[in-house]
Description:
The chain is built from 2 helices and 10 strands; from the N terminus they run E-H-E-E-E-H-E-E-E-E-E-E. By secondary structure, it is mainly β. Strands 1, 2, 3, 4, 7, 8, 9 and 10 form an 8-stranded antiparallel β-sheet that branches. A two-stranded antiparallel ribbon has the order 5-6.
Amino acid sequence: MAYTRGTSxxxxxxxxxxxxxxxxxxxxxxxxxxxxESFKTTLSSxxxxxxxxxxSNGIDLTFQxxxxxxxxxxxxxxxxxxxxxxxxxxxxxxxEATLENLLFAIAGxxxxxxxxxxxxxxxxxxxxxxxxxxxxxxxxxxxxxxxTGDCVDSSSVERVYVAYRALSxxxxxxxxxxxxxxxxxxxxxxxxxxxxxxxxxxxxxxxQNA
Length: 210
């Protein structure tokens, strides 16, 4: 194969749309792709999955392996590294300061959000402390952003990030400031699902326009 400097179509620029599910997912329960439409459109009409709307600074998916060391007398450096742990996190900022997004950010239970917007009683998020031994709330996350590859007249490309189990783990602050928008900075710890031990998957797909 002849040398080339690179392939510009493999460069990804652009933010992703982020969706969160009411429950966790597995490989078998992720909504199916529709060949002629973006996965954003598919998820928007899927019950139990919500679009968080505007985000700030996109998403940041971090893989953090942990390695143990084997030292021997004959060399000053380690002789062998072995993998002994793994952490995967996803960070973003919710730019739409809705109570629904705050519920996701603080890993609250869906039952804690009641009422209806636009009524005299209003939409209410009950900030409960929780009980001893209470299970943390896990949800699935799905992000859809630009993919790699050339778009032609009859198609477009997108990259889909699926996290089967996600748990909000960092502090979340709610501020009302004169010179800054109210945003929720949130960090999700991803956990592997039981059957496959997989955190999720990343798919590059081509949409075939009808």
